Structures are given as structure tokens and as C-alpha cells.
Amino acid sequence: MTAPAHLAAPPPVTLLLDASDDCTIHHAAHQRAHPEGGRITTDPTPHTNSLAYLALDLLRAMGRDSFARPDAERMSTDAAWRAVTCWTVTTGLTQAIVLRAHRLTPERLRRLAVWRAETGIRLTLIAHTPAAADEQRLQERLIAAGLSSLLAVRGTDAVVNAIGPPAVQRRPGPPPSDDVYPLPGLPQSDVASFLADCRRRLNDGDFTCADRQYRAGYAAARTWLARRGPASPLPSPPAEGTGSEGADAWQDMEGLRLFLARLTVLSPSPQHTLARVRGAQAGFLSRHLRLDVPSDLTECGGPGITTVPITPHVAHTLATHLPNPLRAAAVAALLFTGTAPALLSMTQIASIDEHVTRLAIDRDSRINVGMPPGPRHMYAIPPRARPLLAAALLFRRRTPRTAGHFGLFAGCFGTPVRFDQLIRDAGLDISALDHPHPGPDWHHQARLSIGRA
Predict the structure, then answer these.
(1) Count of C-beta atoms within a 10 Å radius of residue 259
(2) Which of 169, 301, 360, 363 suits a disulfide with 306, CB 3.0-4.6 Å?
(3) pLDDT tens across 221-232, in order?
(4) Are both 272 and 331 inside the same structural domain?
């Protein structure tokens, strides 16, 4: 997800002229708002001409209003407007209604003009102009600020029609939490006896759930191998004078780790992850490949073990509690990688692929500057987290003097006070913070090699 190209001819600005300051018009504008449907309505905070306040008013209209809390992180004016632009682009906003436009200063109108030019948003201004002279002065200010191509509408009925019908009624509040079938402790058997041991030890309901996870892992492994085709890297033959260990290992280890991350990133519990991984091991064995994972899998860290699934409820919480795109993306990354903050802090802007589907951390190049890159730590970005990461990338790229090797989450995990504030603002339990996993994440320890009889 990237920002649209600069629009040579942005859509016209609709100027709705309300001569009598009719409450019917204001009510219709608020009823039209539907942030999830791409439409917002903003009523600028009165008694201030601050540019930052106008940006925060727009963020509040998008549903990102946690900055109103006394202890919330404050954003500078430029950062707040960058956040407005980034969320507009990545969340698909297409229309914005701004009330009381006749009170906006030239500086505020110019900021709106820049926002419109950069995002292509369809801007509608509602102004109270009781006299013809008031309308003339307003139009002159709008044109001077760069809000040209004005389409003026007068009269209450015509204005209400121009605003459009009310949005479809939505259920208030955040989406409900997902109802997940809990699995008890599963046997730690190897792949050969795992399913049989589950059948003996679990009741029918628990076994059915575990079997579904197992089958999903089996099918995913078979599909992954089939899609790689005959040109895929295969295990290499042993070299002369080398031992057998590692001689016939799978060559594309980054691809394997990304597959394992995708398989487990939305797993609701370590037990679900164990069943999926055992199924994947069986799928690889059916193609004469052996997948080795840590024997204490459920005690490790990483995808499916210390991750928190990005459900609609979690995505809503991140969107409403963290208006700063960098902060929202940082917490989301903690949730879907399940890794240590020290490793995640090494994420570079170039670590995210073009389609925002994977995160690759090159730890060695950050620690040993100038040395050849080592194996990268691969993580899958779940679909609901992608808009957050896309907004963070756009935010960082719009920051002056930024290059691809710069840290994406710079300043998010640096000091304990700021980091604790970040987590507190998110209001979510992050299991990776309380789970001791000093070693590499489990999928980074996985190995795939030619199966042996």
C-alpha cells in the first residue's frame, strides 16, 4: 500500500453555504460520517486557530482519539498532519466534511489544501454566510489558500441533498472478541505418534479441534511445496570431506521460516500451534522431507507461541488507542512477531516488502556494520496489521532525511519510560514481553532436510 501519485487535478471542493446556520445541516453532516466506509465529518475545536488542533480534530473524526487522555503521547504539528495523511491513504478515506469552514484561518485552509492535493480526498466545506459579502470573502480566502474549483451549493434542501443520505447504522463500540475453542495440553509426541496419542488422551471435542489444526498444517505444507515448482531450491548433495550434518539441508531457509510464520501467526494458542506444526511435519514427510523443530516448542518464543492474533477487536483497539502510525505499527509488530523488543527495534524501513506481507530483520548487519548480511529473521504480517505497517512506512518516508536503512521503529522501544507508555496506551496484553525466550524464535531454529528411513 502506497500513497497515490500526486493528483494534477484534485476533485472539486464542494462549498455548502448555510445562510441561517441550520442545525438540520449539521445533523445531516454528522449522520453521513462512516469512517469504516471512507467518510468522516469534522467539527473543528472552537476558540483555537492551532494547526495541530485541526489535525487532531481530523484524527478524532477517524476514530483515533486517545490523544485526548491527559497522559497520552503528544504529537507535534508536522507529525500530526503526517499522521492524518498516512491514515487517509492507508485506510481508504475518500470524503471529508469540515463544519464551520468560515472560521478557518488562511493557514488552516492551506493545510487542508495540501491534504487534499496529497491524498485526493473529496473535501466538503460547510460555512455559515448570512450575507453575500460574507460569501464573497470566504470564496476569496479559499481560492487564495489553493482550494480552487469550488462547487457552491445554497439552500437548506439543496445542501442536505449534497451531503448525502445517512450512513447505515452500525453496532456501537469495538467488535467482539473472537470465540476460540480452547485446547488442553497436547501430547509432546513426535510427528509419528502425535495424532494417535491425541486420539487416546483427548475427548471427542478436543480431538476434533486438534485434528482440524493438524490437517490445516498438513495441507499448508503440501501446498507450499507444490507451489514452489521444480525450479525450487532442493537440498544439496554432501560435499567431499564434509560431515553429514547439514549437508542435505534445505537451501531456502528464509522461505521456510516465512512459511512457518504464516502458518502460525494467527494461531490462537501454543497448543493450536503445536497441532499445526505437527501436521506440517507430516506434510513434509509425505514428500520425503524432514522438518525438525525445537523439542520444547511450546516453551519457545515466536509466531504462534508468544504472538497475539490480530483479530477485528485487536485491530480496532490499535486503531483507536494509538493515533501515531509508528506507535500503532510497533505494537502491532510486537503482537504478530512474538519476538523480543530488542530484535524488533532493528527493523529497517527496507525490512518490509512492497506489498506489506512480510517483515525481514537483518540482525547481523545492524550489529556488525560492514559485514556481509547473515540469515534474516522472517515474520509474516497478517492482513489486519498491514494497513498499520503501511501507514508507518508512509509516515517514516515522509519524514525529512529518511533512507531505507533507517530504523522503522526508531524511538519506539528506546527508553523504558517511552516503551511503557507505548504499551499502556495500547491497552493490550503482549505475551512476548512476559515470556522468557532468550534464544532465537522457534521458527528460526527449524531445519528442513531430506528424510531418512
Answers:
(1) 23
(2) 301
(3) 999 999 986 545
(4) no
Entry pTM: 0.87
Does residue 277 sit in the same domain as residue 316? no
Q: Is residue 278 part of a domain?
A: yes
The number of folded domains in the chain is 3
Burial of 211 (0-12, 13-18, 19+ CB in 10 A): middle
Q: Are residues 292 and 319 in the same domain?
A: no
Provide the CATH number for the domain around residue 118. Answer: 3.40.50.300
Q: Which domain holds residue 46?
A: 13-163
Q: Are 217 and 283 in contact (CB under 8 A)?
A: yes
Across the chain, mean pLDDT equals 86
Q: Are residues 18 and 137 in the same domain?
A: yes
User: CA torsion, points 247, 362, 277, 332, in degrees to nearest 10?
Assistant: 180
Q: Are residues 284 and 338 in the same domain?
A: no
% the chain with pLDDT above 90: 58
The answer to whether residue 3 is domain-embedded is: no
Let me know whether 230 and 332 are in one domain.
Answer: no
Cα(442)–Cα(257) distance, integer angstroms = 9
* 8 A C-beta contact, residue 117 and residue 10: yes
Residues 295 and 266 in one domain: yes
Query: Across the beta sheet with 150-154, what order do the strands follow?
Result: 39-42, 95-98, 122-127, 13-17, 150-154
The owner of cell 451549493 is 153
Query: Euclidean distance between the first and final Cα of the chain, in Å?
Result: 47
400 Cβ contact list (under 8 Å, min separation 6): none
What confidence category does residue 452 fall into, taking pLDDT thresholds of 50, 70 and 90?
Answer: low
For residue 196, the Cα-to-chain-centroid distance in whole angstroms is: 39
Alpha carbons 452 and 288: distance in angstroms, whole number: 8
Q: What are the tens digits of pLDDT across the range 95-154?
A: 999 999 999 999 999 999 999 999 999 999 999 888 888 888 999 999 999 988 888 898
Does any domain span residue 263?
A: yes
